[in-house]
Amino acid sequence: MAPRILIVEDETITAHHLRRILTRLGYAVVGVAASGATALEQIAQSRPDLLLADVGLEGEIDGIAVALLARERWETPTVFLTAYSDAETMRRARVTEPYGYLVKPFAEQELHATIEIALQQCGLEAARKQRAQSTNHLLVRTQEELNTVTARLFSAQEEERERIARDLHDDLGHRLALLQMDVEKIRGKLPAAIRDENKMEFDDAITRIGGIADSLRDVSHLLHPSILDDLGLEVALRRLCEEFQARYSIAARFSARRVPSHIRASTSVALYRIVQEGLQNVAKHAGPAAVNVALIGATTSLKLSIRDTGSGFDQESEKSRVGLGLISMSQRARLAGGTFEIQSEPNAGTQIHVSVPLESPPGNQE
User: Looking at the domain assignment, is residue 28 inside a domain?
Assistant: First the structure.
C-alpha cells in the first residue's frame, strides 16, 4: 500500500506541483490543505502517514502549529517545506520534532530521499514503541504473576508457622508440663533425708524445665501469634512491643488511634509481620536506640509507622544491598494493596511508613 501524504501549502501552484511529483513517485496524496484549520480537519479524517507542510501559512495556525498539534493528537510525522531558514524559524520548527526540513527551491530527488528517510524513521519509531509497549505489558503480567506467587508463598508460610506453633504448644509444651510434674512426683516419693539433701538440684531442674517451657511458648508465639486472632491487631502489636522491650532492653513505645474493630485477617497478619521484622532490624542494626510504633486508622486506610532513634544508614549507598527483611516488608505491604516507604540518614535514625486500604465491615458493603 502506497504511503499516504497530506500536502499543507497555501500557494496553489506549488501545491499542484507537489501533488504531481508525489503521484509520479508512487505516493498517495490524500488531500491539499491551504490553511492550518483545514489541515487539522483533514488529518483527523484521513489520518495520513506523513505531512508535507509549509511553515509560513497565513492565518492564526501556521505550519509549525499544525505539525505540533498533529504530533500531539495523532502522532503524525511532518516534513517541512519552506522558504524560511532563519534561526528563529528553525528553533520553532525543532520543537515539533520534524522528520525533515527542505528549503525551497528543492530538487525532486532531494524531496524523494527526504520523504523516504522520514517514512523509514517513522516506521522504526512506531516499531520501537510497539516493542516497548509489548515489553511493558510483559513486565506488568510478570509482576502480577510474581505477586500471585509471593502471596501464595506468604500464605503457605503462615500456614506452616501456625502448624509448627500448634505442634510446639500442644505437643512439646504438654510433654514439658508432664516432665515437670513427674520430677515433682519423684521428689515426693523419696525419703525426706534424700529430698532435703538434693533440694537445690531438684529445684534447679524444675526451674530449668519451666524456663524451657516459657521459651517454647515464646517461640510458638513468634511463629503464630494467637493473640492476633483472639484479641486483634492493636492488642497484638502492643504486646509485641512490650515483649521486644523486655527481651532486648530497648525502649519500645506503642500508640494507636481510631483503629477499626474489623480488619481483614490478611491485612492484620501483614502489618504484624512488618512490625515484627522492623523491630528485629532495630535490635540488629540500630545500636543504642528507642523505637516508636504507631497505628492510626483513617477513613479508608490504616497507617503504620515505625520510627527509631538509632544509627540509621545512607539510603543511596545501601540501595544495591537491600536486605531480605526490607524486601519482605515491602512485598507484604504491596500484597495488602498498600504502600511502603523507608527514610533514613546516618546518625538520624530510620522511619518506616506503611499505608494499606481498609475493607468495609460486613453489612456495610454495597
Answer: yes
Report residue 138 as a C-alpha cell.
510483559
CA distance 12 to 49: 22
Residue 33: name the closest of 85, 70, 83, 1 by CA: 70
Residue 271 counted as domain residue: yes
Q: Which of 106, 135, 162 is the last residue of a domain?
A: 106
Residue-range definition of the domain harbouring residue 304: 231-366
Residue in the block written with cell 502448624: 163
> In the sheet where 28-33 sits, what is the strand order?
28-33, 4-8, 50-54, 78-82, 100-103
- The CATH number assigned to the domain holding 20 equals 3.40.50.2300
* Residue 365 grid cell: 458493603
When pLDDT is averaged across residues 275-293 and rounded to a whole number, the result is 87
Q: How many domains does the chain divide into?
A: 2
> Rounded to whole angstroms, what are the CA distances from 67 to 7, 27, 56, 96?
12, 20, 12, 6
Helix (H, G, I), strand (E, B) or coil at 101: strand
Least confident piece of the model among 85-94, 125-134, 198-207, 346-355? 85-94
Cell of 279: 523491630
CB 39 within 8 Å of CB 60: no
pLDDT digits (tens, 9 = 90+) for 203-254: 888 888 888 887 777 777 666 677 777 788 999 899 899 989 988 899 999 9
250 three-class SS: coil
Last residue of a domain, one of 106, 133, 157: 106
Half-sphere exposure of 46 (CA within 13 A, CB side): 21
Classify residue 120 by burial, with Cβ atoms within 10 Å: 0-12, 13-18, 19+.
exposed
Average of per-residue pLDDT across 196-200: 86
Q: Kindly give, in sequence order, each residue whose CB lies less than 8 Å from that of residue 6, ignoring residues fewer than 6 positions away.
A: 29, 30, 31, 32, 33, 39, 42, 43, 46, 48, 50, 51, 52
Q: Is there a domain that residue 316 lies in? A: yes
